[in-house]
Design a protein that fits this description.
Elements (H helix, E strand, L loop, with lengths): L27 E3 L2 E4 L4 E3 L7 E3 L14 E5 L3 H8 L5 E4 L5 E3 L2 E7 L7 E7 L2 E5 L21 E6 L11 H17 L3 E5 L5 H10 L6 E3 L1 H12 L7 E3 L13 E4 L15 E6 L6 H7 L3 E3 L7 H11 L3 E7 L1 H10 L3 E4 L11
Parallel strand pairs: 3-4, 4-5, 5-6, 10-11, 11-18, 12-15, 12-16, 13-14, 13-15, 16-17, 18-19
Antiparallel strand pairs: 1-2, 2-3, 7-8, 8-9, 9-10
Length: 354
């Protein structure tokens, strides 16, 4: 198959120190996506394929149309929500190994969203790990990241610049609550924009540690919140905005909505309000001003710069391929530190609106 965005590793120019340099690469890039030839499957393919292994349920990683899917068991509900109830989805518990043709695969927690997984692939003693999206920060809505030793590590780099460093999530949640309280005191609603899958549920769970007041949610969030509740995640009580009786005041309320709702007619019902946005992109102050939000809260479901570096070191990988995000800066930094690293071009989006 023709390859696209191929780094030097996948052209056969492997580091002399790599223990399996005499073998073809275990994963290649094809027009359909990342492909494992010995296993005859794709990982997070961007076009329909016969068999797709899926790291998590965000739309740039879980795309419809493939004949069969395999994912982590705790993400099954979200995968069906994304891919359709009739999709052929098999699942594995974290850590359980499965033989697929000539390779052994297993799923390991990525700490990104509910059911997110790194995929470990072993073939004749060689181990590759595809990280998907991941974070190392604690999150009450999903299983914590698990370090998986490997020979080749394919890592994301959504926030692969030194400027991106996250504060303690508990402090961010306290800041959101103070903002809500301040608006509540003067009779304004607080409309907080956040990504529909993962971020919204994490905010609701973090706030549930601090208050039991209910929040309102946009329809794009509601069914996903329900999946998390079915998985046993404790969150604030929520009510769907569209089910509120017409003419009801939202003064003092917290409303969670996807960024796409901003500036739409849907916003008119809230009267006087302030807007906020919860995202890792809010680390750059100019982003908040350019997008017209009253407040920005730095909260991401991706690893920050220190945790990207820590994860690469923890895996003890002999080589690292860097995909989606700031791939070139991270790969360059790793090479300067003596790590055999290169960028790997893919269509994955990282922290884009979902």
């Amino acid at each position: 198959m023709a390859s696209i965005g191929t780094p030097r590793y996948l052209n056969g120019a492997l580091s002399a120190s790599y223990p399996f340099q005499d073998r073809p690469p275990l994963i290649t890039v094809t027009p359909q996506g990342l492909y494992c030839a010995p296993g005859d499957f794709h990982i997070d393919p961007w076009h329909p394929v016969e068999r797709a292994l899926i790291t998590h349920a965000h739309g740039d990683h879980a795309r419809g149309g493939s004949r069969r899917y395999l994912g982590a068991r705790t993400g099954e509900g979200l995968l069906h929500r994304r891919l359709g109830a009739d999709s052929a989805i098999d699942t594995l518990p974290y850590g359980e190994r499965l033989r697929i043709n000539d390779v052994t695969v297993s799923f390991h927690p990525a700490g990104h969203v509910l059911g997110s997984a790194q995929i470990r692939i072993e073939h004749q003693g060689e181990v590759w790990v595809v990280s998907g999206d991941y974070k190392r920060a604690p999150d009450p809505t999903c299983e914590p990241f698990e370090v998986v030793r490997c020979n080749t590590f394919i890592t994301e780099a959504t926030f692969g610049l030194p400027i991106y460093r996250w504060d303690d999530t508990r402090l961010v949640a306290e800041d959101i609550l103070r903002w809500w309280d301040a608006n509540r005191a003067v009779g304004r609603s607080a409309v907080l924009f956040c990504y529909a899958l993962g971020k919204a549920q994490r905010i609701l769970a973090e706030l549930a540690r601090l208050t039991d007041r209910p929040a309102y949610v946009h329809g794009a969030l509601n069914s996903l919140v329900a999946v998390y509740r079915e998985a046993g995640v404790k969150m604030l009580p929520t009510q769907l905005v569209s089910e509120v009786e017409k003419g009801t005041s939202f003064a003092g309320a917290l409303v969670l909505a996807p960024p796409s709702a901003g500036g739409s007619t849907w916003m008119r019902r809230f009267g006087e309000h302030e807007t906020g946005f919860a995202s890792g992109w809010m680390r750059v102050r100019g982003n908040r001003r350019r997008r017209g939000f009253d407040r920005g809260f730095v909260l991401s479901d991706h690893a920050d710069w220190p945790d990207l570096l820590r994860t690469v070191a923890d895996t003890r990988a002999e080589r690292v391929l860097v995909t989606h995000g700031y791939t070139d800066p991270l790969a360059h930094y790793l090479r300067d530190k003596g790590v055999d690293a290169a960028p790997l071009a893919t269509p994955f989006e990282g922290e884009a609106e979902d």
